[in-house]
Specification:
The chain has 189 residues and is mostly helical. The protein has 6 helices and 4 strands, in the order ααααββαββα. The radius of gyration is 21 Å and the shape is elongated. This is CGNR zinc finger domain-containing protein.
């Protein structure tokens, strides 16, 4: 069983909310999120949607604490989720695959999602370190990511955000240089 693959559930859920749009706005959008993991599907209610939004907030706080250097707080929050949503391994066979392990096939959709996401994140942190949790530094982006670079240098959620940030920085430098040049000419009068 690849428990670390469950860590992707964290990224998928937390990144449904950004400063511009909440893509977890209704039951249809929750169903769309769950389509990637058929074993997590089930009948959904408004309470499930609210529980998933609450879980999203808790998971984001883990990243926020980790990025700001409050590692103990991040770990305490993660441990709290692990206690609230214990895992229950179960053999599963679906989609023509051989028997394999899944986590928590019983309970509500949010409970199953929370158990898998919490366990996956715990495995990821214990394997790679809490410093590998990141929040995109691009303006108007707040997506979370796992820093998989060898030198722990990742600062953006995607190449697109990194490129946009680079272009914005380049344009800002050009503006500053142009303003300094104009200001220097005005002083020479």
């Amino acid at each position: 069983m690849d428990l670390a693959s469950y860590a992707d559930l964290v990224i998928e859920l937390v990144n449904t909310q950004d400063p511009v749009q909440d893509s977890l706005r209704d039951l249809d959008s929750l169903q769309t999120l769950l389509e990637i993991r058929p074993h997590l599907s089930g009948r959904l209610t408004r309470r499930d949607l609210d529980a998933m939004r609450d879980l999203r907030g808790e998971l984001r706080m883990i990243f926020t604490s980790a990025v700001s250097g409050r590692h103990e707080d991040a770990i305490e929050r993660l441990n709290s989720l692990l206690i609230q949503h214990p895992i229950h391994p179960q053999l599963s066979g679906h989609d023509g695959q051989d028997w394999h392990m899944h986590l928590t096939e019983g309970g509500s959709v949010p409970d199953r999602y929370a158990a898998g996401a919490s366990m996956g994140l715990a495995v990821y942190v214990s394997t790679h370190g809490i410093e590998r949790l990141g929040i995109c530094q691009a303006p108007l982006c707040a997506k979370v990511y796992f820093d998989t670079t060898a030198n722990r240098s990742r600062r953006h959620c995607s190449d697109l955000c990194a490129s946009r940030a680079d272009v914005a920085a380049y344009r800002a430098r050009r503006r500053e240089n142009a303003e300094a040049e104009i200001g220097g000419r005005d002083c020479g009068r």
